[in-house]
Write a structure and sequence with these properties.
57% helix, 10% strand, alpha/beta, globular, 431 residues
């Protein structure tokens, strides 16, 4: 009986490993082919772009971010809106507020026509409330807004690439710039070298997810020509790197404020209305949490987004008339896809663990070999590929990175096994 269970578990892990490996390689291949921008390309339309950056207690990081966006976005015609919040004053602090820092910067640089400062007047609410506050003050519904965080520094050619992709897909209304979570890859400073390797592997876990899942989903329902994918493939947006036409955003009531993972719900609403979300083949380099504890907290928050897919469906069914959704079958399909993905994520650790302990529960060496091959394909092989592509990913984010050391690649590839077990164990402890 135990051998049958092991074979079944190994087959499940093998299928997941092979499928995610194929999806990841397809995503990387698409990016390599589409990252280049035609020189002197003429655009029939160049809609206005407004960059929205919500900020809360960001006195130290806001100026470097503003300098980046001024250099690469404002210089190309974009307008910047910084949205501070009264929530900042709930806690006492020394020195000027974020609002004061931005106001003084704008005044000293004479950028009043390039940068707008708004202050969300309520002390309650989250980032979605700040964004909706700015959204309600916009008047040009045919223009686009680009959403970024205070620590965002997207590729310098993001604006050009957006117009390039819009020219290729003139009916597109929604674009997503994905992130590689490697910006601080060589900056982890724990006194324990093993902890640093563990944190680096966690950074690769998030980056692997971007290419094996996020890009794969975006490509299915936008670029690929299969009609069933266009209608029934689930996809989501992310709260930073999203570029969307204001009119479309207002159609779904702006940014959802009901859930802490509002970007997942927003993507669900957009797909339920039949809109495709187009990926951009240049990256934003984001930071991975710098401690194991902060990684745990991040995974815990992310965990609840997929768990709420059924509530998303109930919302769409209840408000279908208001949302002007005439067919909720796609929404039901998206719900099932989301719940299956959540189940796969939740069970990946236990499945790997079962395969890992197979030598202790069976004497059948062939079954043990099958289990360990499944682990290798699902974990070390994919992490090795991600790590070996770091120079490409940094280049796609606008930075340089030297070729990784082979020994480090092997270390981190092997660390993918405990990292796979890490989130599920902590979630079980928390619950």
């Amino acid at each position: 009986m135990i051998n049958i269970i092991l074979i079944f578990v190994a087959m499940v892990l093998s299928i997941r490993g092979v499928s995610t490996l194929v999806f990841m390689l397809q995503s990387i291949s698409w990016i390599k082919k589409n990252q280049f921008i035609k020189k002197k390309q003429e655009f029939s339309t160049k809609p206005k772009i407004t960059v929205l950056i919500p900020a809360l207690r960001e006195q130290k990081r806001i100026i470097p971010t503003l300098n980046h966006f001024i250099k690469y976005f404002v210089s190309r015609g974009a307008h910047i809106v910084i949205i501070t919040t009264q929530k900042e004053y709930e806690k006492t602090f020394d020195g000027p507020s974020t609002q004061d820092v931005v106001r003084e910067f704008v005044k000293s640089k004479k950028l009043e026509r390039k940068i707008t400062l708004l202050n969300y007047p309520n002390k309650s609410g989250f980032m979605a409330h700040q964004l909706n506050y700015a959204l309600n003050k916009t008047t040009d519904d045919n223009s686009f807004v680009a959403i970024y965080n205070v620590d965002s520094q997207p590729h310098p050619k993001t604006i050009e690439l957006f117009y390039n992709q819009l020219a290729k897909n003139p009916s597109a209304k929604i674009f997503q710039q994905s992130s590689a979570f490697i910006k601080n890859f060589n900056k982890f400073n724990s006194s324990n070298p093993l902890t640093n390797i563990f944190l680096q592997t966690l950074a690769l876990l998030q980056t692997r997810w971007t290419f094996a899942h996020e890009y794969a989903r975006l490509l299915r329902q936008s670029v690929y020509k299969f009609k069933l994918f266009k209608k029934f493939a689930n996809a989501h947006v992310v709260g930073h790197g999203l570029i969307i036409q204001i009119k479309i955003l207002k159609e779904v009531g702006g940014f959802p404020t009901e859930n802490i993972t509002e970007d997942l719900f927003l993507g669900y609403l957009l797909r339920s209305k039949g809109y495709s979300i187009y990926p951009l083949p240049l990256l934003e380099l984001a930071e991975s949490p710098a401690t194991i504890k902060s990684n745990w907290k991040q995974k815990y928050v992310w965990f609840w987004g997929p768990m709420k897919y059924w509530s998303y469906f109930k919302y769409v069914r209840k408000n279908a008339k208001m949302l002007r959704i005439t067919d909720i079958v796609p929404s039901l399909v998206f719900t099932l896809q989301g719940l299956i993905s959540a189940l796969a994520w939740l069970t990946s650790g236990p499945i790997v663990l079962v395969c890992l302990i197979s030598p202790f529960v069976t004497s059948n060496l062939i079954i043990v070999l099958i289990c360990y091959i499944a682990i290798f394909v699902y974990g070390p092989l994919q992490y090795f590929i991600v790590y070996s592509n770091l120079p490409l990913f940094f280049e796609l984010g606008g930075e340089r990175y030297s070729k990784p050391n082979l020994l480090n690649e092997i270390y981190i590839s092997l660390f993918s096994i405990p990292v796979t077990l890490f989130p599920d164990f902590l979630l079980l402890v928390r619950n």
